């Protein structure tokens, strides 16, 4: 198959892990369901995926006992599959990929985006897809580290200054070939390795993962103060 044919026939699927509990936020409901600038955090995270015409369908991975959002249909006009999450984020993504079995081809692209990242700029998503669509395995949005880094003891004493040269913050979306990512996640699971993003599973499987520079304001809502920051970012993005 030529590169041009490859580009024409492969499809793009989004997988959105939204099965976490948000334990680092002191809130009654998981952070993806909290309101943010008039809609939910989840709605904000889905909006750029929804607006990207190359994405054929969305797999939303929610907790099996999720009491907050059982009607997900209004969140998207695309083909929507709802899957159940697992104990760790990587289990949830693995379940999301399983839900695409028989639907996605091995070479199709899977775009994994955290439900807790409501500030993804559409241009970053477009840039990620444009940059990686001819890549053999895929890569992720990331931002270079600019601050000086310290390693500290549990008591907050500085142990050393860490060289930041070549260090990047891993963001989402992360975009990988369906078959390769499925196999890499299965391999890390079988090896008992915990990975906190898809790229780490691909790295452990020996693939050359590509970084694509993205905006540093594509933050993950983790603590309560992040919600206020996200609101400012969204107002500035104007999308
Ligand atoms: N996630 C998931 N399944 C899990 C754990 C996390 O789908 N078992 C999702 C979260 O819903 C979130 C994303 O993975 O969209 C990133 O995880 P994180 O920021 O750690 O969210 P939580 O696990 O919900 O937060 P915390 O770690 O503070 O409990
Ligand atoms: Mg977590």
Blueprint of the fold:
Blueprint: H1 3-9, E1 12-18, E2 35-36, E3 39-40, H2 41-51, E4 55-62, E5 79-84, H3 89-98, E6 109-112, H4 122-132, E7 138-144, E8 149-152, E9 158-162, E10 168-177, H5 178-190, H6 198-204, E11 210-213, H7 224-237
Parallel strand pairs: 1-4, 1-6, 4-5, 7-11
Antiparallel strand pairs: 2-3, 6-10, 7-10, 8-9
This protein binds cytidine-5'-triphosphate and magnesium ion.
Residues 17-24, 30, 32, 61, 85-89, 92, 114-116, 220, 222 line the site of cytidine-5'-triphosphate.
Write up this protein.
The chain is of the alpha/beta class and 239 residues long. It has a single domain (3-138, 170-207, 219-237), classed as Spore Coat Polysaccharide Biosynthesis Protein SpsA, Chain A. Helix content is 31%, strand content 25%. The chain has seven helices and eleven strands. It has helices spanning 3-9, 41-51, 89-98, 122-132, 178-190, 198-204, 224-237; strands at 12-18, 35-36, 39-40, 55-62, 79-84, 109-112, 138-144, 149-152, 158-162, 168-177, 210-213. Strands 5-4-1-6-10-7-11 form a seven-stranded mixed sheet, sandwiched between helices. The protein has a two-stranded antiparallel ribbon with strand order 2-3. Strands 8-9 form a two-stranded antiparallel ribbon. Helix 3 crosses helix 5 and helix 5 packs across helix 6. It is globular and about 55 Å long. The model has no long low-confidence stretch (mean pLDDT 94). The chain binds cytidine-5'-triphosphate and magnesium ion (MG). Residues 17-24, 30, 32, 61, 85-89, 92, 114-116, 220, 222 line the site of cytidine-5'-triphosphate.
């Amino acid at each position: 198959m030529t590169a041009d044919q490859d580009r024409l026939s492969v499809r793009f699927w989004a997988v959105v892990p939204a099965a976490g509990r948000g334990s680092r936020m002191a809130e009654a409901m998981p952070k993806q369901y909290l309101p943010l600038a008039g809609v939910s955090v989840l709605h904000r995270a889905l909006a750029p995926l929804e607006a990207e015409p190359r994405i054929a369908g969305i797999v939303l991975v929610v907790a099996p006992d999720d009491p907050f959002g059982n009607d997900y249909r209004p969140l998207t006009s695309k083909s929507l599959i709802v899957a159940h999450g697992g104990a760790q984020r990587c289990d949830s993504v693995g379940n999301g990929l399983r839900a695409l079995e028989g639907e996605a081809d091995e070479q199709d692209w899977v775009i994994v985006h955290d439900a807790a990242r409501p500030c993804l700029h559409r241009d970053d998503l477009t840039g990620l897809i444009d940059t990686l669509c001819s890549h053999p395995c895929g890569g992720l949005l990331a931002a270079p580290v600019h601050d000086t880094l310290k390693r500290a003891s549990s008591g907050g004493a500085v142990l050393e200054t860490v060289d930041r040269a070549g260090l990047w913050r891993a963001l989402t979306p992360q975009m990988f070939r369906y078959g390769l990512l499925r196999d890499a996640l299965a391999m890390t699971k079988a090896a008992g390795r915990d990975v906190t993003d898809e790229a780490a599973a691909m790295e452990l499987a020996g693939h050359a993962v590509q970084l694509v520079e993205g905006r540093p304001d594509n933050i993950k809502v983790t603590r309560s103060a992040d919600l206020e920051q996200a609101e400012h970012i969204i107002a500035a993005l104007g999308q």
